[in-house]
């Protein structure tokens, strides 16, 4: 029996609604597999926890998490009660950083049964490799002179190591896909870090002569996500650019609520963390209508990570079948609830796996 110990952090808002659906789907996958078992330990770390304890997680939170095989997280953030930079840096970004989850991979593809807002979605299938350890998301800087003369300085940090690591990951990934890497740059406007980014990209690509490459400024690239997403295979982007591109990736599939993600620790020292692209969606929380597909597809990425690609693919097929059958939450034009979609995915999965 392959036993996987998973730390589960539903977090805030709709994280608390979609995570239980996804763990139920994972249990169905394990049942079908027969030799696989997920053992969940749930942690209530969230903005509610902050209100009670004055912090997002206990002092020894990371020590507790580091012994798990993976972390499965919903979303963090309840800006009504805790400022977003405090809640995210106190938990989500803290885990990404301390556990050296240096890469965030986020696929987007034409999804069967979904109405893309694009006139001609034409089967796009791309994956963004987002640098996840530095870049524009940094604590380096400060504020001085409160009031009228206030100055805020925010530094973006680009190291050779971090930049090259993300790019090499993208090239390796492209080898297993369609052999094309696009670099998201902005070297016309950002004077130091982006020309550096371009230089590192040119260096790395010289090692991958079989891989085709392109480089676009992020503004044009964002527009191409809308006008011709088919031209992309793997896109490598800085932390901020990757963050923005992947919400667009969700949008062109039909909803940000279906976009999955994985924060990968590459050195094996710490667990990786699986959490969808979307946030806690306070505007729809509590109504039971959050789309669980982002979280369930994220579970599929966790299955892939543990070497269960075959079942992972069946799960993705089951999600697409259910969507195609019209069992959908309101964000993608349906009338089903979060739980109904989850149950339909489990049933469909059992059906396809009993016939094969
Ligand atoms: N990784 C994380 O934990 C993230 C956390 N956040 C936090 O989440 C909170 C809300 O942030 P927003 O900027 O509003 O982004 P958001 O992703 O939570 O919501 C943006 C829009 O998409 C919709 N949406 C998102 N997920 C959905 C789903 N599964 N089903 C249906 N509709 C969905 C929401 O209803 C909202 O209209 C903030 O506190 C923010 O800091 C935001 C992004 C990522
Ligand atoms: C914070 C955020 O929006 C993200 O990691 O996607
Ligand atoms: K999330
Ligand atoms: Mn984001």
TrEMBL record:
The broad enzyme category this protein falls into is: oxidoreductase
Give UniProt keywords alphabetically.
Manganese, Metal-binding, NAD, Oxidoreductase
Required cofactor names: Mg(2+); Mn(2+)
Annotated EC: 1.1.1.83
Which reaction equation describes what this protein catalyses? (R)-malate + NAD(+) = pyruvate + CO2 + NADH
Name of the protein in its database record: D-malate dehydrogenase (decarboxylating)
Q: Which PROSITE patterns match?
A: IDH_IMDH
Q: What family name appears in the similarity comment?
A: Belongs to the isocitrate and isopropylmalate dehydrogenases family.
Q: Which residues cross the membrane?
A: none
What's a single GO MF annotation on this record? D-malate dehydrogenase (decarboxylating) (NAD+) activity
Pfam families cross-referenced by the UniProt entry? Iso_dh
Superkingdom is: Bacteria
- The segment(s) forming the Isopropylmalate dehydrogenase-like domain are 5-345
| Keyword Manganese part of the UniProt annotation | yes
Instruction: Give coiled-coil spans as residue ranges.
Output: none
């Amino acid at each position: 029996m392959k036993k996987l110990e998973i730390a589960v952090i539903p977090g805030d808002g709709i994280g608390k609604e979609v995570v239980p659906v996804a763990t139920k789907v994972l249990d169905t996958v394990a049942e079908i597999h027969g030799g696989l078992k997920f053992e969940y330990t749930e942690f209530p770390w969230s903005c509610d926890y902050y209100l009670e304890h004055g912090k997002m997680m206990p002092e020894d939170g990371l020590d507790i998490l580091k012994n798990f095989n993976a972390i499965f997280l919903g979303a963090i953030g309840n800006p009504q009660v805790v400022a977003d930079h405090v809640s995210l840096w106190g938990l989500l970004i803290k885990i990404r950083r301390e556990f050296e989850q240096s890469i965030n991979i986020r696929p987007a593809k034409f999804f069967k049964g979904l109405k893309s807002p694009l006139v001609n979605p034409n089967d796009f299938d791309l994956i963004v490799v987002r640098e996840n350890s530095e870049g524009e998301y940094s604590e380096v800087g400060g504020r001085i002179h409160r009031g009228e003369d206030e100055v805020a300085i925010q530094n973006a940090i680009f190291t050779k190591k971090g930049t090259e690591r993300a790019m090499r990951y993208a090239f390796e990934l492209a080898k297993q896909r369609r052999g094309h890497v696009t670099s998201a740059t902005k070297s016309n406007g950002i004077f130091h870090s982006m020309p550096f980014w371009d230089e590192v990209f040119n260096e790395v690509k010289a090692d991958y002569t079989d891989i085709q490459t392109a480089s676009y400024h992020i503004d044009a690239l964002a527009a191409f996500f809308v006008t011709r997403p088919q031209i992309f295979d793997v896109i490598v982007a800085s932390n901020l650019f990757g963050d923005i591109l992947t919400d667009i990736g969700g949008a062109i599939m039909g909803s940000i609520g279906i976009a999955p993600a994985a924060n990968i620790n590459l050195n094996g020292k710490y667990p990786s963390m699986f959490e969808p692209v979307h946030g806690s969606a306070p505007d729809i929380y509590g109504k039971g209508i959050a789309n669980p597909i982002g979280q369930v597809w994220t579970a599929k990425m966790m299955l892939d990570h543990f070497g269960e690609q075959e079942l992972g693919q069946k799960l993705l097929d089951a999600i697409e079948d259910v969507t195609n059958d019209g069992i959908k939450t309101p964000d993608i034009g349906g009338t089903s609830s979060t739980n109904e979609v989850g149950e339909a995915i489990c049933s469909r999965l059992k059906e396809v796996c009993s016939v094969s």
